[in-house]
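Service request form, structural biology core

Requester: graduate student, group of Dr. S.
Request type: structure prediction, single chain
Budget code: on file
Notes: please return the result as structure tokens.

Sequence provided:
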Amino acid sequence: MLCIVQYSLNAQQVRPDDGYLFDQTIVPKIEVYLSQDSLDTMLLPTNVRSNHEYRAMCIITKGDTKDTINNIGLRLRGNTSRLADKKSFKISFNSFEPEKKFKGLEKLNLNGEHNDPSIVRAKLAWDFFADAEIPAARVNHVRLHINDEYRGLYLNVEHIDEEFIKKRFENTDGNLFKCLWPANLNYINSDPESYKFTNSGRRAYDLKTNTVEDDYSGLADFIWRLNSSVTNNFQCKIEEVLDVNSVLKAMAIDMLTSNWDGVINQNNFYLYEDLNTGKFHWLPYDTDNTFGIDWFGIDWASVDIYQYANRLGSDRPLYEQMLTLPEYRAKYTYYVDQLIQSYFNNSVLDPVLDDVSSMTTPFRIPDTYATEDYNWSITDFSNSFDDFDDAHVKYGLKSFITKRKSKALEQLDDYDIVPIMTSLKIVHTESDVQIYTDMIDDLGIESVILHYSIDSAEWNESNMALNDDGHYLATIAINAPGFLQYYIKVTDSSNQSRNFPSCGNTEINTGFFPTPNLVINELMASNSMAVTDNNGEYDDWIELYNADNVDIQLSNYYLSDNSENPNKWQLPNIILSPDDYLVIWADEDGSQGDTHANFKLQKSGEQIGIYDNTDNNFALLDYIEFGEQNTDVSFGRRPNGVGEFEVLDFYSPQTNNDINTEVKEISSLNLSVYPNPTSIEIRIDEKYIGQRYNIANTHGKILTSAIYDEVINIKQLPSGLYYISIVGGGVISIDKFIIVR
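Core staff response, request fulfilled:
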């Protein structure tokens, strides 16, 4: 039996590698080419708010390496930056070719940073978040040319989308909300539809994933809990739906960098709802108004760290509610102190700024667009790294860091935090449950005790000792499937104790029941004109096969393309008999029937698994991880139901994959096709009823494949010449053709 690993806390990953596109050591060159008419039209003052994408191509040069990407989309991006002389642009690799990616990414954001003389503030803030293990965009400097004109030094900023989530979270199928003004997180009412309100033609809380479901119930519940009175069980309520420690750390970074155009301005942040844990995570976005940039006459380097949120108005519950609770205020204080010691200080950041200035100066010198909006010279660029005061940019970077650090340390409360749990992992096997956790405390951990009860029996205690990998571990032996209740009590060196969870217990299932022999038998990840679904559409498909000797109630099980989200899609309420098949259409369109899954297959390759239900810890029934697939070619088990996956000569949905293992071509077979010519339907010899037929075009591409049942409907075929083949009984015939008129 396979072990199942469940992550229930701290779902975000360590900062991803910079990869090819976000190299920090050089300034790559990006050249974009499109018709001059398209570029002129895009840049017209009347079109600056348009998101129309223009067809283009780009060349990315890094040292001696040059990549050409054709058929991309180019458009303007941003808000106020659309009005600037130095525009910001978005490159989309998949605008005209669905699923197309370059180096694993679908889009790039090229930001002109027109209101920052150093062209580095946003990058410095994003790097700060990422180094502190807050999910944040990867960023590097690039030099942009459009139609051979140098447009200047830019920031290349990673796009926040499904690909971003996949690189940072264990569960990647949750709800991603883009939150723009006036996303203040204030409670409206209990109706999820109320949070779909719009401003300037878009939703303030704009759901970017799972848009078919369009489910705002989790967001509405989170906002209700966030706005609950701190005297009304606030801590218990909020910790069930929010990664509190990560948010407190992100609040500390926002404050230190003076990122006023984020949460405290009801603007520019993302929320990611992990549907497995039910918890929300805060992701920073658009961090250019930082490090002393000001539009309000506020000295952001001096603002009190506990009064930061209300500088732009009241009713900022993410800050105000969190800091009202003494435990959270102490943790926020701890994070401010720790971040200053480890990162936000001149000894760490001054050398970073010196390196950036040295690397980017040769490409800023010829950047004439950088001078047009605020008349900043190359001297202003150089000075902005040290001491600077010009219009709304009140500080150079080094001088801001010096003052912000000094003021924050002056304002710090005395603190003694209760222990912080930074990770929790549960591993189930047939014989035990292993619980791993990590804890931190400002004064040190004294003890970590697991309290547990199996099947409502007496409560027991187990000391969680540090293992060789530095995790606190407890192993609980189990004899049969059942359930386990537990909580973890941590005590620090100052004798402060904390239970996890804060309120009540956690309950998990233990052990594994026997699972049926239900397998993935065949799949097609790129169906162009091979097999149609019940709506006449060519969708990706997965064939399931009952290789057991008993009926299987499919609704007890799940199908998923993400092992970290095993219950992604529940199989339909169908009983599958032994040696029977069911085709699932992977088209993200459940409105077309209960055999249409809520995910698609990737032609480039991915994973598919069948999983048991929660009573059996989502035990894995069957699993396939496949690579690049060819269009209209299936991938299946041979021998049928039990063999390894291989490319099949003929796709065979609802049919045994072995039928073509001993095929021989018999061109002399006397196959009758009538009426011929025709435009509606044809018939063939009755002796072929129950056997598979293929209809192909004159290039040999199979357009239709099905089991013959007295009549073949060909109304969907345009006029032309087609070949019909019989696949079955160990023979193929391709000596007859159909004329459709």
